[in-house]
């Protein structure tokens, strides 16, 4: 949604966006780019397909925007879940 709103505001010819996600659990020691080296990690592989007559620079910028969307930022930050019975 963030990418579509950005493209619309810029009046770029984005026609459609398809996002595919794959979730896996991996050993932290198998992740070269991860800070954590113990235990298991959740990994989400994301493919973003942009449809429309976009220039390479526009496509690159939309990928940057996708990396900064609220959902992405939440998933890549430290998450604390507090539960209580009511």
Q: What tags apply to this protein structure?
A:
single chain, 3 helices, 86 residues, alpha+beta, 2 strands, GMP Synthetase, Chain A, domain 3
Describe this structure in words.
- By secondary structure, this protein is α+β, with helices and mostly antiparallel strands.
- It has one domain (2-76): K homology (KH) domain (GMP Synthetase, Chain A, domain 3), CATH 3.30.300.20.
- It has three helices and two strands.
- The protein has helices spanning 2-10, 56-67, 70-76; strands at residues 14-27, 40-52.
- Strands 1-2 form a two-stranded antiparallel sheet.
Mean pLDDT: 91
Characterize the biggest β-sheet: 2 strands, antiparallel
How many independent structural domains? 1
CATH superfamily: K homology (KH) domain
Helical residue percent band: 25-40%
How big is the Rg?
Answer: 17 Å
Widest β-sheet, arrangement of strands: 1-2
Sketch the topology as an H/E string, one letter per element. Answer: HEEHH
Briefly, what CATH class?
Alpha Beta
Low-confidence stretches: none
- What is the overall shape? extended
Derived structural class: alpha+beta
Reported by name, the CATH topology is GMP Synthetase, Chain A, domain 3
């Amino acid at each position: 949604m963030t990418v579509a709103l950005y493209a619309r505001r810029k009046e770029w010819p984005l026609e459609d966006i398809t996002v595919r996600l794959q979730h896996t659990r991996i050993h932290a020691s198998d992740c070269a780019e991860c800070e954590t080296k113990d235990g298991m990690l959740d990994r989400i592989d994301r493919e973003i397909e942009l449809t429309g007559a976009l220039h390479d620079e526009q496509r690159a910028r939309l990928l940057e925007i996708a990396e900064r969307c609220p959902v992405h930022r939440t998933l890549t930050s430290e998450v604390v879940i507090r539960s209580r019975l009511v």
